[in-house]
Amino acid sequence: MLLDGLFIPLTTPFYADGASYLRKLEHNVARYSRTPAAGLVALSPWSEAVGLSDEETRESLRVIGESAAAEKVLLACATEGSVRGAVSLAERAAEAQFDAVLLAAPMEWRRMLRGGALAEVELFFRSVADRSPLPVVLWRETAELGLAMPVERVMDLAGHPNVIGMFDAGLTAPVLQEIVAGTQDVRREVTVTPVFAAVTRRMREAAADGPATFVDAGALTQAGASTAVVAPKPALKTRSKSVGFQVVAAGPASGMLPLLEAGVSGMMPELAACAPQGCHEVLAAFRDGNPELAELKAARLGAADAAVRELGVAAVKYGCDLNGYYGGAARLPRVPLSAEERVRVDAAFREVRN
Fold this sequence. Notes:
Elements: E1 5-9, H1 22-32, E2 39-42, H2 54-67, E3 73-78, H3 83-95, E4 100-103, H4 119-131, E5 136-142, E6 147-148, H5 151-158, E7 163-168, H6 173-182, E8 188-192, H7 201-208, E9 213-215, E10 228-230, E11 239-243, E12 246-249, H8 257-262, E13 266-267, H9 276-287, H10 291-300, H11 302-311, H12 313-322, H13 339-348
Parallel strand pairs: 1-2, 1-13, 2-3, 3-4, 4-5, 5-7, 7-12, 12-13
Antiparallel strand pairs: 5-6, 8-11, 9-10
Helix pairs in contact: 1-2, 2-3, 3-4, 5-6, 9-10, 11-13, 12-13
């Protein structure tokens, strides 16, 4: 699976009483599908997914899989405390036609340390990768989980045949260069479209469906019964691309330019949930060979980035409301923004309105 471009971390919509609001999740996913984003990430630590029940998780994955455009890469984040739980979530994601599972270390990872070694954490990742029906993407560092996996461990895991890449919220250019150098022997062939975009499981399934039928136009002008004929269905055109260990930066959008210059394959800033167009413009300007414009676009995201980092998921959801997506209220015990905080977010998002 190709991990390239902008990835959007989905929020979890709720009614005012805290119940899951699946219709609004469907609305958001359908609208995100019309953006230039390469993929969508469900159940990330930024999404309040840790508070969902098993049934809510299953229904959320189903709705996302049914609502997303076929060409959008879908990743489901697993923040489970056991191998069994993570594999179970991967199986549910596979049933919902997701493309990969984004695997974070268990919440109690610090208790798994023995003599300062991460042997049990590495065993967790390897065991899930052995059993997962979907490719595994490592989540190296998130502020929410408090884990920064050593680069050496990442290099070891990169050789696993079912581990295809890494997301990192604390990625720096030197760390990226070290990982690229240490995994240069890892090469995989991925299936892509003729323009080198990812080919998803839902694209393959649609291509594998039987051909459609229609009534021949000539038969409509003749007497007698019309005859249904089989219309040839165009085949899904693909090609192969050789990729290494794929690294996606998940830090602030305003700080992405140095990482793009260092060769990161994709980006998933938290801000992309409420300002996907603004985040994509940084990536697009850089790939169009205009780093000056990319730097200007990134600078415009600075205030919104700062507000989101300080105020958390409530600010992300309010930003969604400002930009035409459904944010709504966070689920308790998270509290909504105060009037003063809303004024601050309004001002911060003035430059990143859709």
